[in-house]
Amino acid sequence: MPRRVIKKIVDSILGALSAPGYEAVESEIRSFTVGEEPFGLTRWQSAGPDVDAAWQELYNNTILRIPKNQAAQLPNRTYPIAGDDGYYIANLDVFHQLHCLNMVRMALHIEDYQHNAWELEDRHVSHCVDSIRQSLMCSADISVNVWQWNEPYNTVTGYSSQAHQCRNFFKLRDWALDHAIPEMIDLTQHLTDDLEWPNKNW
């Protein structure tokens, strides 16, 4: 194996070990809920104040405050926090994808979200759809859906409520809340930064 390939693999492993949130990663087996009629909707489907609150619980206040040594390990440069020397802004991508999925949900119920119409413009929602596509293809879940006889419909149908090998989402969410930026920050300041950042070409 070429030395440069080995170096990339080693760098990737070391980068993952020092990545924000790595210590909160915990595997679990979780069965998906169907969330279809007549079985009943999950609390994240449809529209309304209770549904909105359920979505906000998933990803609200998860913008991270990470130290300089972690920022230096990221494969892309991130920005320092104004007035908080040695700390940088970041967020785990799962929360961006949940934000995007929530935008798609709201766009499906646009009549209930006229007050958010500026967020639900086609360009933003289209970005969200493609971002979710890339995330799904990146993670490429290989849990196997099964097919069974469906007596009420008199046909064989696929079932997606089987067990999956997952990361414990709520442990990651709680970690992000514990490491979140504690208050609103000034995003309008253009700062110079001396962060030493590796030149990674991958």
From TrEMBL:
A Pfam family it matches: UstYa
Pathway(s) the chain acts in: Mycotoxin biosynthesis
A GO BP annotation: mycotoxin biosynthetic process
Domain of life according to the entry: Eukaryota
Family under the similarity heading: Belongs to the ustYa family.
PANTHER family: CYCLOCHLOROTINE BIOSYNTHESIS PROTEIN O, YALI0B05434P
Name of the protein in its database record: Tat pathway signal sequence
Organism taxonomic ancestry: Eukaryota, Fungi, Dikarya, Basidiomycota, Agaricomycotina
